[in-house]
Automatic annotation (TrEMBL):
This is Metal ABC transporter ATP-binding protein. Pfam families: ABC_tran (PF00005). One of its GO terms (molecular function) is ATP hydrolysis activity. Keywords: ATP-binding, Nucleotide-binding, Transport. It comes from the Bacteria. PANTHER family: ATP-BINDING COMPONENT OF ABC TRANSPORTER-RELATED, METAL TRANSPORT SYSTEM ATP-BINDING PROTEIN TM_0124-RELATED. InterPro entries: AAA+_ATPase, ABC_transporter-like_ATP-bd, ABC_transporter-like_CS, Metal_Ion_Import_ABC, P-loop_NTPase. It comes from Evtepia gabavorous. SMART domains: AAA. PROSITE patterns: ABC_TRANSPORTER_1, ABC_TRANSPORTER_2. Residues 10-241 form the ABC transporter domain.
Length: 249
């Protein structure tokens, strides 16, 4: 379901980022509405992660980032963040339960997890249909399973905005659809907005309400069709995806 302008929204205006004297982002203005799924695309080094990091308050920026609740009241949003998939050593001995318990409660990973904490972890994993993963070793999870665990972590507590940095990388095609269907379910169930970056354009039509094409500045914003068929998109990626879009990388 597309976003509902006029209710809550994230408003980014004239955002600029300069790191080590180099301009990374400039003139970034866009709006993310309630329940909207927005995809951020652009070549390597375009500034996608930097934009996320500025919204998260991790790097300095110029311009403004504001969040308004329904009724137009300014507020500090709760933001859930799924970083670019970390890789774990296959032999890493920590279970999903230990990892999760340590992350949400600072419970030491070398102590047995008490019952109430196990129940909490089970409840969190259930939000992503991941209860069955609780005893698996974190290093043995597939790309899609690891993304689900990281997503469950970002949903505790339930945020108003969910940001995912390349959630589809390292996930196979079947897993991609599972994950994106889950994001769609989550935004409706918890009434939140989602901003994610991707290099996979084949899923955009089905899952994104809006797409931003970024290369230091916003080159194009619109529906997936509008962006994928724009001269700006073809110029940046030197390709023509035809009617149905395709898959880069
Ligand atoms: N801490 C930093 N100091 C200086 N330059 C940085 C820093 N972090 C990122 N950059 C530069 O900012 C630019 C944008 O990087 P960023 O990671 O935001 O791009 P991206 O679009 O997420 O790329 P990718 O698709 O490869 O993940 C790059 O040129 C990068 O080298």
């Amino acid at each position: 379901m597309p976003g509902k302008p006029g209710t809550c929204r994230l408003q980014v205006r004239d955002l600029g980022v300069t790191l080590e004297g180099e301009s990374i982002l400039r003139d970034i203005t866009f709006q993310l509405n309630c329940r909207e799924i927005m995809a951020l695309i652009g070549p390597n080094g375009a500034g996608k992660s930097s934009l996320f990091r500025s919204i998260l308050g991790q790097i300095p920026y110029s311009g403004s980032i504001q969040f308004q609740l329904a009724g137009g009241y300014p507020s500090h949003p709760k933001i859930g963040y799924v970083p670019q998939s970390p890789s774990f050593d296959r032999g890493y001995p920590i279970s999903v339960l230990d990892f999760f318990a340590a992350a949400i409660s600072r419970w030491p990973v070398f102590l047995p997890v008490p019952g109430h904490l196990r129940d909490k972890v089970t409840e969190c994993l259930a939000r992503v249909h991941g209860e069955a993963l609780i005893q698996k070793r974190i290093g043995t999870l597939s790309g899609g399973e690891l993304q689900r665990v990281l997503l469950a972590l970002a949903l505790e507590p339930i945020p108003q905005i969910l940001i995912l940095d390349e959630p589809l990388s390292g996930v196979d095609v079947g897993g991609e659809h599972l994950l994106l269907d889950m994001l769609d379910e989550i935004r409706q169930k918890y009434d939140l907005s989602i901003l994610f970056s991707t290099h996979d354009f084949s899923t955009l039509r089905h899952y994104a309400d809006k797409v931003i094409l970024l290369q230091q500045a916003i080159l194009k914003v619109g529906t997936p069709g509008e962006v994928l068929h724009s001269p700006e998109f073809q110029a940046v990626f030197h390709l023509n995806l035809g009617e149905e879009g395709g898959c880069a990388q």
